[in-house]
Amino acid sequence: MRQRTIVCPVIQNEGEYLLCKMAADRGVFPNQWALSGGGMEPDETMEEALRREIREELGEALIISEVKPWAFRDDVRVKTYADGTTEQIYMIYLIFDCVSANRDVTFNEEFQEIAWVKPEALADMDLNVATQETFRQKGLL
Questions:
Q1: Which end of the chain is more exposed for a tag (fewer CB within 10 A), N or C?
Q2: Model's pTM, two decimal places?
């Protein structure tokens, strides 16, 4: 089984959190709301990987003004690729509290849509289990 270290930003702006609805046909949590993030490359530091993932998935215009390491955890997930193949992966999540200076997001094909969500609305969303656990640990669910 392959191992991946995943950097995951919990991006907050003016009391709301940025969530992304995953593509319906791929990923670890298809068609569910999630935090953005992705795998580290061998030559990157944690923060370099985090900022690269944010740029790739959410665009160059989103300004992250604050980054603080917050938590980590691990689990095993099955990832579905665009061609329909699947792979079981041991994932180590490095979770960061991030503050954005704006809300200028242009998301890539990994997502169907994005939303800025107030903490009290989180319980009403179809969050994937990893995102649920993150918000539970933060005391927001």
A1: N
A2: 0.91
